[in-house]
Task: structure prediction
Amino acid sequence: MNVIDLRSVSKRYGRIRALDEVTFSVQAGQVLGFLGPNGAGKTTTIRILLGFLRPTGGVARVYGMDAWHDSPKIRARIGYLPGDVRLYPHLTGRQTIRFVSRARGRGGGADAERLAKAFELDLRQRVRTYSKGMRQKLGLILAMMHRPDLLILDEPSSGLDPLMQQVLARELQDAVAEGRTVLFSSHRLPEAETLCRQVVILREGRVVAAESIADLQRRAGHRVTLRFSHPIERMEAHPSGFRIDHVATTEVHGRWHGSVPELTRWLATLPLSDVTVEPVDLEDLFIDYYETPAGADP
Amino acid sequence: MNRALVLKMVRDYRGLFVLTFSATVLVPILVILALSSTPIELVSQWMRLPLVRNFFRMLLGADLTHMLNRTSFAAFAFVHPIMLSLVWAFLIVVGTAVPAGEVDRGTAELLLSLPISRLRVYVSVSVVVACFGALLGIAPWLGAYLSEYIGEWSEPLLLDRLVLVTANNLAAIAAVAGVSLAVSTCSSRRGTAVAILFAWLLVSFALNFLGALWKPAERLVFLSLLDYFRPLIIVRDGRLNLVDVAVLATLGLAGWTFGAVVFVRRDIRTT
Result:
């Protein structure tokens, strides 16, 4: 069963199209990275799932329920971390937890204490004295303390130091091990590589890729650096699988999209002094998605 | 209604409420004591001044000149500008806390991510506004009642008539609260909501004043909120003008209903 199911979801603000026919789904027990640059529509999509925004077109369903009409029922099963965590400044961390727990009508105190310990957060302080990282930690505790079936986290590691990012990754792994589902948005691919196997990449309100990180890596090919003993001005004939990024005196930098035997056969024909072949950094591919015109293949 | 949200709001505004409530009890005491202690001849002299007479007529809805007694002074306390300012300001502050205040501060995402329907959130806020408003509505009567125990007076206050004034006061408070909630639900900026409401009440006040001073403006006075709250007429006649109460209650109910419909249907965006 799909936990999240979006079918051709669009959102317009007057003439501005924030989301354009967004379609993807998340299955139970899955961790899905929802990636894209700032302004791609990630937060808008999340707000539609939570019933903050009403889609202007398409259908958004969570646990088979309509995200707008059945929003309170859906939210009972969700833990949500906003992208920009804003809390009541006059309350202490503990008072905030108590308020949210009581308003939710479900106990979450025990897990809150455990999470506060894991994230090393002092709950006695007033929120107004918290740093951004501390607010982020409290936001994560509020989202996770009632052990929700679905966690929707908008930029979860924002403001967290590397140690706390590891704690977060561990908590999310535990949640998934218990069969819970996680959707998190990010504009940083390394975060996605750490936390999930499946990604949806959004750009200018459109889904430009929805696949596994392994498939992304496969499609990304290899970065190839050819070094010649003499300066070359341009590369003449080369296989169609090789795309030249740039030529620098004795070096040619490019990307290989093809089989490895085909690559080695071609390299053997070149008067090379050295060659480097390495997997493409996913960050580069991610940037490709951002830079290529929407709809075109990166 | 969500109990946790109600308790949080009460906690958030209890300090401000205690101050406002104390002031709205104290101001009538001071007004009644001050006017009752002043020789009636002197008050009569003041009332002969056109500006003073019009000012009182504007606030009280009738000429005070021929009704110089302690109950009339108490009625004046209900609509004293300080009282109106205090009560209206408090209602606007609390009435715009949700959703305008929450959206403006960004905490709406936390509040609305909880499994509480927007209608329940709205009802919870309304309950808090209604309870605070009701207490502020009866505060002037309480002040008048307490003033009876301060000093020796030959003429007692007609407290039963002031109960009727209190009923009209509650209707006026309901109107301000209802419109505050309506404006709050339409706005994502609390400052904007507060400015709109203050402007409305200021125009209402000015219209009433203008109507008392300038004949042509009299035709527009029906648009003023204060035209439906005339405590001196209630004290004089000993009965409530049900039309006035109905107009104010309808305005409050319409504002509240409009706010509920808008809040349930609107998009919530904090950034």
Observations:
- Chain A touches chain B through 27 residues (CB under 8 Å).
- Chain A has a mean pLDDT of 88.
